[in-house]
Amino acid sequence: MVTERTKTILLLTSYFAKNSSKTFKPLSTSEWNRLARWLQTKTINPEDFLTQESDLLLDKFQDKTVTIERIKYLLERKAALALALDKWSKAGVWVINRGDKHFPKQVKDKLKELSPPVFFGIGNIALLNQKYIGVVGSRKTSEEELNATKELGLQISQKGYGVVSGGARGVDESAMIGALEGGGFSLGYVADSLIKKSTSGLFRNHIINNRLCLLSPYNPEAGFNSGNAMGRNKLIYTQSFATIVMKSDVKGGTWEGAKENLQKAWVPLWVVDSQEQGNIAIIKKGGKKFSLKSELDIPKLIKREPTLITPDLFSAPPSIAIQEEIAPEVKREELRIKIQEASFFDLFLLKLLEHFKDKSVTKKELKDTLKLTSSQLDTWLKMGTEKDYLIKKQRPVSFRLNPKLSIRLVS
Hints:
Number of helices: 18
Shape: globular
Strand content: 15-25%
Distance between the termini: 47 Å
Radius of gyration: 22 Å
Structural class: alpha/beta
Helix content: 25-40%
C-alpha cells in the first residue's frame, strides 16, 4: 500500500513516462530537500497537496529553481501516477519514502539529505535493515574470478551477514547468488530495469522465498543510464558495514564508487590483492588489501580505523564548518578531501573556503582572486552547483558555499 505522502513525493520527484515535459522536470533531491524544509517550517505535510489548493499552501514560497508553476504542473500528473502505480503493483513493486519505518537506516544515517526521496522495491522489505557486507566489481570477469566471488558470498552468508551489491552481470550477480545459494540473503541496488531484473530466472525464486530484495531510487521501468549507475554506488557502500572490491579497472563504476567511498569515508574499503591495475591503484589510494586465501574475519573487516587529521594546505584549521543558522532538522554533509589525492576542483573549494567562507561572491571576484580562466571557472562553478556544494543566487549572479557543507582534510 503506497501512502498518501509517498504519492505526493512521487508526483514531485519522479518520472512516469518518457514523453514527460522538458520544461517542468521532476524535482532533484536537493530541490525536494529545500521544498520539504520550507513545508516543515510551515507545518505543512506533503500529502496536504492532494486535498488542498497548492496556491494557498505555497503562499510566500520562493526558490531559485522550484517555481510554484513547476510544482503545480507536477502535482497535476495524478492520472499518470495512478496508471503507473497500478502497473507497478501488478509487477510486485512497492514504494517507500525517507520517512517510512522500512527506509534503510544505514543509508539514511550516512547520506542524510543526500538519501533518495523514494525507493522502489521488489521482494522482502524486511531485508532493508539487515547487516550487510558489500561486494562490487567489474562486469568483465573470468570464470575463475566469478567462482571466487561466489565463494566469498557464501562465506559472508555463513558469518550471518547478507551480501549487498548492484545486481549487474559479473561480480555483483555472483556475490549475491553465492550468498543466496548458501541459504543466506542479499540486497541488490539496481540502477535500471528493476521489474525486468526481478523476473529473471537468476533472481525470481530467491525473491519468492523472501531471501532477496531488489531496490532502486529510479523508475522501475527505466533503462540503463550511466549517471544512474554511478549514483547508486553510494547506496551499496552506505548500506554495508564494509565493502570488498573484487576487480576494478582504472575507470568506470567500480573505480568511481571506490574513490568516492575513500573520500567520504563511509565504510572500510577492502580490495582483493591482485595484479589488476584498478585494484593496485585503489590500494594506493587507501584501500586495504584483502586476501581470498585467508579465512573471512568479519570483526576485522568492519573495524573502523581512527581518522588522522593533517594540517590544511592553506594554513586553515583542519576541520571547518561553514557557520549559518540552520533549522534543527537540517544535517550537514561532510566533504572529506585527501591532501595527496585532491583534485583541482577540491583545491578550488578549499580556496573558496579560505577567501569567501561565509559570503557570496561574483564570478569576476572569483576570477580576479583565484586567477582562473573564464572557461575553467564556469566548469567548476557548474560542478559545485550540481553537487549542491555551492548555492547560486540571482540578481546579481553570485555564488556561496552551501552552509550545510563541512569540509575536512584527511591524510
